[in-house]
Every structure is written in C-alpha cells, then in structure tokens.
Task: structure prediction
Amino acid sequence: AQSSLTLFGVMDAGISYYETKSNRYTNNPLMAAPLFAPDNVTRSKWAMSTGGNSGSRLGFRGTEDLGGGLAASFWLEAALANDTGLGTAPGGIIGFNRRSTLSLSGGFGEIRLGRDFTPIYTNDLIADPWVNSGVGATLFGSLGANLATLRGPGSPVAASDHYTRASNSIGYFLPPGLGGFYGQLMYGLPETVKLSNAPQAPSSTGRYFGGRFGYARGPVDVAIAYGSSQAADGLVAAALVNNKIDIASVIATYDFGPLKLYGELMQTQDKRESTSISAITRIKDKYKGGLIGVTVPVGPGQFRATYAKVKFDTGAEVAPLSVGSTDMDASSQKLALGYVYNLSKRTAFYATVAKVQIKDGQNNPVVMGSTTGGGLTYLSTGAGVQGYAPRSSMGYDFGFRHAF
Amino acid sequence: AQSSLTLFGVMDAGISYYETKSNRYTNNPLMAAPLFAPDNVTRSKWAMSTGGNSGSRLGFRGTEDLGGGLAASFWLEAALANDTGLGTAPGGIIGFNRRSTLSLSGGFGEIRLGRDFTPIYTNDLIADPWVNSGVGATLFGSLGANLATLRGPGSPVAASDHYTRASNSIGYFLPPGLGGFYGQLMYGLPETVKLSNAPQAPSSTGRYFGGRFGYARGPVDVAIAYGSSQAADGLVAAALVNNKIDIASVIATYDFGPLKLYGELMQTQDKRESTSISAITRIKDKYKGGLIGVTVPVGPGQFRATYAKVKFDTGAEVAPLSVGSTDMDASSQKLALGYVYNLSKRTAFYATVAKVQIKDGQNNPVVMGSTTGGGLTYLSTGAGVQGYAPRSSMGYDFGFRHAF
Amino acid sequence: AQSSLTLFGVMDAGISYYETKSNRYTNNPLMAAPLFAPDNVTRSKWAMSTGGNSGSRLGFRGTEDLGGGLAASFWLEAALANDTGLGTAPGGIIGFNRRSTLSLSGGFGEIRLGRDFTPIYTNDLIADPWVNSGVGATLFGSLGANLATLRGPGSPVAASDHYTRASNSIGYFLPPGLGGFYGQLMYGLPETVKLSNAPQAPSSTGRYFGGRFGYARGPVDVAIAYGSSQAADGLVAAALVNNKIDIASVIATYDFGPLKLYGELMQTQDKRESTSISAITRIKDKYKGGLIGVTVPVGPGQFRATYAKVKFDTGAEVAPLSVGSTDMDASSQKLALGYVYNLSKRTAFYATVAKVQIKDGQNNPVVMGSTTGGGLTYLSTGAGVQGYAPRSSMGYDFGFRHAF
Result:
C-alpha cells in the first residue's frame, strides 16, 4: 500500500517583555491599611520566548492507503521549549504531548485514538487570530487552563489536561463532503479501578466527553462545541465529592477578503458538590465571555486585533451581613494588537502587544488572574478580605517563526 | 561509502479490559477468619492500551557499507506510550530504551555495543506467538520481569533490566551462512567501582552474561539460551550477600504451513546467599515452566493460541512442625486466544482474550502474581499465613496496529 | 522557497578504563598521621563509554532560502548516552541540550536565538585535537565545567551551563568573506524578575556575555575569546553577594601538512564579593593555563597528542602565622596520546590514553580535581589541613565512532 512519512515542525523564538500589576484592595473598610504597604506591586521581566506566533514543535506523521477508501495514519507531535532545548512535559521531558494519535479513516469518517485537542479547545483556537499563542493568546485559553489546573483532574502530561487536550481518548470525526457540515466527538477514558469491596468505586475522575459541530462554506465558518470534564469524583476526607467542569462555546468567522472577522461566546460552569455526614454543599460558579477579533491583510503580512471579556459569577452563597463581601464576582478583559510579516509561506517576523485588565481579582485570583504569559504571577494575598489582588498585565513579543 | 538512514516505528492502540481476583486463604486452620471479609476481591478497569499486538515505538537506524564486507550500523528505538504521548522510561521519558546499539559487522559476524535484548528474552519472544505483547503475552515474560524487578539489579532505564534487556552490553552474533546454525553471546558490564581501600570491592552487581544458539532450516527452528544476572553482590547490613538469577530455556517452532507450532521449556534459578557473623543462609528457588502455542492462518489473518504453566519450588526450608506451611510452593497457568486481521502488511486489527490462574499464590505473590497487564495488581495480604492471595486474572484487547 | 531538512547524528561507543588516585597530605606537621591510613587510595572502573571520539548525538536541522541572500535555519541536536539509550539532560532526559537554535542569516551575518555553545567554549574546542571528547579532552574543559558547576548559575539543562553552553541566548556571527576575519557575540538573558517592592531586584544571576574574533587563512587560524558569566548576584543569608566568572583565551593552530600544531593560553577569574553588615569580602581566584597539541596524519588515520597545564592562584588571604598553609595554590597537568583509524569519512576506530597529575590538590579539590572522565571522583578529605587530596588520574578509551 502507498504511504507517506513526514518529519515536520515549527521553531519560533523571540524576545518578550512581561509585566503584572497587583493592587491593594480591602473588602473590610473597618480594617486599617498596613503601614508602608505600597498601593500596587509590579513584577516584570524580559525573556527569550518560544511560540509567540506558533507553538514550537517537532513531529512525525504518516499515512498508509489501505485501499477501498480506507487509510491508517499516525501523528506524533512534541512541544519544544527551544530557548533551552528541553520539552514542555513535566520535568522538561520532550514528549508527544501536543498530539499522539493513531487513526483509521474512510467513507465513515475518522476514528482517532490517543492524545488530542479537545473539541472545545479546537473551537477556542479557530476563533482566536493568535491561535492561542504568545502574549495575545485568547483570554478563554488562560481561563480554561487556569481552571483545569486548579480543579483537576490534570494528568501526568499536563496540569491543564481536559481543557486543552485529553489523553486516552477516542475521537470520531465526520467525513468531508457533507455539504459544508463537519463535526467530531471525543471520549476520554478515566482508566480508574473498580474494586469489588469498595462500592463507591470506580471513581469517574478523569472522564471526558465533548463534541463540536459546524458549517463552513465560502467565507463563513460557524461552530458550536461542548465539553464536560470530571475533575473529581469520590471520597475525599470523609466527604463524597463531585466536581464537573462544563464548557460550551459558539464561534463564527467571516472572511470579507480585505478583512476577516472572528467572534466567540463562551460559558463555563464549575459545579462542585460535597456530601458528608454533617453537610451538603453545592456550588455552581459560572464564567461567561465574549471575544471579537479581526485580521487584515496588509502588504506581505497581516494585522491582528482582538478584544475579549470574561465575567465570573460566583456560585458561593454570601452571608447577607458579612462586611466587605457584597460583591463576590470578578471580571477581566484583554486587548491584543499585532502584525505578522511573512518572509515566505513558512517564515515570518511578528510583533504583538497585549493588555489584560482585571476587576475584583481578589474574588477569584487563581482563575481570573490571567497574565500575558512568561511565567509571571500576580502578588495575591488576603484571601479576599484585605491585601493585594491581580489588577493588570502587559506583554510584548518580538519574534521570528519558521515552520518546516 | 553507501549508506542508508531509516525512520521507523509502530503505533498500536486499543481498548482493553483487565481484571484481577484475589481469594481469601488460610494456612493456619486454628485462626478464625475475620468477620465480614469477602471470600474474594476483584479489581478491574477499562483502559486505552498501547502495544496490544506490537510494542509502540519510534526509531532511527542506519547502515554504512565500509567495503570489504564490513558495515557500520546503528539502531535507536524508543518505546512509546502513545495513549498519552510520553515514553516508558522512568518518569515518562522517551528514551531509546528498546534498543540503542552501534555495530560493526562483517564476515566474522557482528559486534554490537550498547543496550539490547538479552539472549534469554530473545528466546522467549520467538517462542511466543504474541511476541510478549498485550494480554496474551508469554507467562515467562511476566515471571522474568517480576523476578528481575524484585531482586534487581534493575537499572535507571528499567526495573526489569537483565531479564528483558541489558545496558552497557557487548554482544557478538555469528555470521549468517553457517548451514542454518546461528548464535549470539552477550556480556553486560557492571560498571562498579574498585576501591583500593575496600577489599570486597568491586561488587559485580549488574554483571550479565548470556548466550543463545540455534538451528533454523526450512520449517524448523530450535534454540537454547542461557543467561545469568548478578542481582546483588556485596556488603548489605553487615552481611555479605550474593544473589544470582540464572535462566535457561529451550525453544522449538515448526511451520507445517496450515499451522505453526511453538514450544518452550524454561527453568529459572534464584540463588541467594547471605553470610554474616551469626548466620549463613543459602536459598535456591526454582521456577520451571513449559509453553505450547499455535498460529493458524485464517483468511487474511491469523488465529493464535497459547497455554503455559510455571511451577515455583521454594528453596526456603520449612520448619517441620509449623502450622499451615506444609506446602510453600505455588504454580500458575495462562491460556490466551486471539485473532489478528491484516488490513495490509503493516496494518491490522486484533482481538485477544487471556486468563491467568494461580495456585497457592500466597507463597510467592510478587513473582507468581502474573496479571494480564494494565497496571492492575492483586490484593495480597497476610504474609503467607492468612489473608488474600493472587488467584486469577482476565484480560481483553481490541486494537489497531500500524507499522511505519 | 527552496529548503532542506536533515536528520543527522553520531553514535560512538567504546570500552574505557578510568582510575583516580588520592594521596595523603598534611599541611600541619604537628598533627600525627592517623593509624592504618594508607598513603594513597585508588578508585578505578571499567565501563562502556560513549562519545570517546565525538559526542553521541541525534539531530534535526534545516534551512529555507528566503531569497535576496536571506535564509532561515534551525538546528536541534540532542546528546545521547547510547550505552543505556537515555539522554544526558538531568534525569536522563533526551533534550536538544547540545544545540537548539533558530537563525536568520544574510549579508549582515547571522542572528541566532536559543541554546548554543559559548564563544569561549568554541575557542577551547578548536584548540583541542580531542574536541573535548573522551579521556584526552582538554584540561581547560574540565576546569571550566568544574568551576561553572561549583559556582553556578547552571541551569535546568546542565550544571556546567555558561561555560560550555548558554540557553536563552542571542548570538550574532559576522558574515563570511571578510578577508579571513571572523567573529561572534553572544548575550544570554538572565530572565530574572524585577519586583517594584524589592529594590535589589532584578538579580542579574544568569546573565552571560561573550565574544570571539579570529583570522583564518590558508594554514593559519588564530582567535581570541572572552566570556563573562554572572554566577550569583543578590541577597544570600543577609549578605549582598556577587560572583562573576570571567574567562579569556587566545588560540592558534597551524597546519604544516605533515602535522598540525595547536596552542592555547587561557586565564579564568573567579571574582566573589560579599557585603553584609559585619563584613565585606572580596576574593579573586585566578586560573592560568596553556595547552599545546599536535595531530599527525599517519596512514588512514591520525596520531594526536596534547599537553596542558593549569595553575591555580588563590585569591584568599592567608593568615601569616597559620600552620601548614604557606602555599594555598595548586596546579594540574594533563598528557594525552591517541590514534584514530578511519574506516571511512564517517566511521573510525580510536584508542586514547591520558594522564592527569595534580599538585597540592587539597587547596582546590573540586575545581582542580580533574579526572579523565567516567564519573569517578577523588577521595578528598581534610578541608586542606590533613587528609586525602586529588593526585592523579589515568584513562584509556578503545572505541568505535560512526557519524550519520
């Protein structure tokens, strides 16, 4: 049978500046501010960045024509931190953590086994002119990764697993040629152990399912996606806990020729239940967001701009008389501007600037504290009462990308 | 000089079910059974499996013709856990842990330096229709790996080292064209340090030697192999210890055309000595086993079946009056059935079912407690007196394999 | 645009013997020697070695012609420990730790981003007939790596970073065609964080800069190089510390045809300052060295010999009346001889013998205690007063190298 074997990759390196600013806040006006505490604290650094335009990677892929329209194919794609030469899996390992799949495809579509993007992340990528890369990366990307890392289940491959990617997954893709309609389903096996002498087992922690369906014809591309991740499920410290992260989004892009518009609406629910002998707790946090973007071909390159906003609606009940906790919500917005100058189809210079602004960051500093990248974190203290809270972040990328 | 450079590999993914069952046992009829203790405990799980038919891997190999019949060649082959994209070396590293060798070959045969299969493991592979892959893998494979992991020396590359593979090894292979006779020798350097001020050094822990000799002509292939691994040697807790694992096996396969028969006889000795001021201990455990298998070409595929049995003869002395310890031996058997459906020479579907049955597992639960894979372990308690012991294991593989 | 993509590497394996000898010393003649203490202690081992002639590696590199004299290129090169199949990054990771760079080149020269050799190490490599490989490797190589490992800053990729290589670096190379003149500059970003509420930040620990300039025409090649690594900078245990390692060298090679001569002069300064409320300390250690080497084409191979000497001048002040500390300096010398027999351009046998001799090793055992490789260390006790000190080291390599 005919077959192909391809070595491919991206090398993307740049110089970047990152900055985070945390502001002093108080939710309790009766408490005195500490002496000598500055109004805000700024952290910043210059760094060699990778993947500012497109994630650095090295991959191997191949296809074998099995006849009768059938084909077997595989895809192994490793993320690279090319500023140091190591990988991005835990411990600096170079692993095929971007994608590791084996497929059988034919008239029925494609069955894909292994580690792959989730449907919901695919939606986020397509609606983001920055393809979730560099300082301009979609605000929904930071939010999804922050929440997955905080709640779990994560995986030995990445803490953000089940937002961006899922291992041990079975994917199904509709075949092409359905009059513009396309779609996919994904199921990630939890691989937990069932014990005959432990009735609450097996935990379904780590189970993932999601789907994506859309229509693309001519200049238009619209799609909806949904994903549900079982972040926790089982007995934790004498309580039966259950935590699900459900994300839904709708995206649309329209290519007018002189410019292309991008839009996305997203809602994430973080549903947590805990049942113990003494108490039952049910909390449903919501994150709602919108993104608009535009790309404009200018000369041999492309101008890009996006604006996104995310609003956090806490599901926690607020004691009506508690001081300083009248509003437990938070919001963040991000503006990103940039230009990509193409030296060839595969090689480009790029420059990007982005700013994140956060309101009431003290109410959810971990998830809402999005930065523009670079590993900088906010100063975040006071547990929502009085201290420092994430306030804003700036970032610049000046880089060079080469695909091979 | 002419040369070749090849990128090659296997991607193999499937859905598998694994189950282990541990039974309650007592070797002391005078002790009362605990209340509410179930008669047996079953553990099970569904998982995405890799390498159910052939170990997933990615490799690079090449040969340079040096003239005069001489050739230089190298082989780098990494094991992949393609369900997650990581590797199988400790910590999930992708390393060339399957094989990493540099060779010089010519009329004299081949000298091979680096990490490679041991001769004894090669024998086990060739006598196993499942090539030690998936739930049907040879019972001798689990036994060898379990014992090597328990006793050592292992290595930073794999705990089972010196059964399946050896690093730092020098191998010699007879040239082809000896009228059907073939053979190989392997020596693994212990790389231990000699100290002028410590007379017992250097320890030879980690030294390996082995060989394999056979005859293959027409439908027949017979071979014997032997390997000796120095698992421990030196001063441990004020005692001079010495532990050797010696394995010998004879295999034969005969291809009748409509079916091919496989057979193997194996004996493993686990010899442990400990000399301290107060006591000298010498224990020689023995494991004896036999395997028969058959493959039958059926349609575009192949039917496979194997049956194997291993008997453990303890070398520990039994106090004649001890209650409940009249028989310290154990045995295990394994039956495996399957079908491989070839879509092409390189691509296939497969389905396998296997069952392991263990008698008196409490007498050697670590080594004799073979499972059908998947990381499931038995519930094993009571230290041979009263508790749970490995009893049986089931496994199913439904998978898809593609070689490139 | 035209482009190339190349898979390349080296596999080098051999059998080596290593030995270190430590001698008993006393700097205090009033102290009695311990009873039964031998005059010297020898450690030795046999090992399978890798990279005795050329560092084992696997790499991917490519170039795209962008037109107008411009080209984009990348280089990913991983070091291999092919005796075990793992890599050489911490934890046995296979990473592109030898080189990981993205370049833009044209009439202006080359801009190179990522992880690369430092200019000073390049000088050391070119002046060393052994290319810093195997038992014969340049004495300046051990010295530089020992000092970088001891003082820092190191990196997650290698403890010797900022002597041999630097990550997060921006390199500039002069274009060819300057009448024989060539040159390069390198700057390594410290990537440290600036904090608005911590005036001493950002620390510049990890900053590197260096350069190399030379002239090569016909048989002659001369070059100077300089490098400065910020090993430490900041508040450590209530003291403001600053540690810089500055290295300068000049090299020359001359190819007479029947033989080629190599020479290098090197000076390293290890400058340490510590300012606390109670004390200010300033120490400037110096290491001065010279190397001469020769290669002689003999038959299908090459004979090689080098001799090098390094003198350590301590910058620590010696209390004038202290017993036994009248000379705090030390020195080491190394002699290496070998032959490389080429089977082809890419494949060779080699044999090397080397000896290191150390004087007053007790005064700086970590940095001056160079060995011939193999992971053997000296017995080193007594903190410079009375005990064992590094004295000499022997090494032999018998190996086989194949480049692909």
Notes: The two ends of chain A are 26 Å apart (CA to CA). The interface with chain C takes residues 7, 9, 11-15, 38, 40-48, 58, 80, 82-87, 91-94, 343-347, 376, 400, 402, 404 of chain A (CB under 8 Å). Chain A has a mean pLDDT of 94.
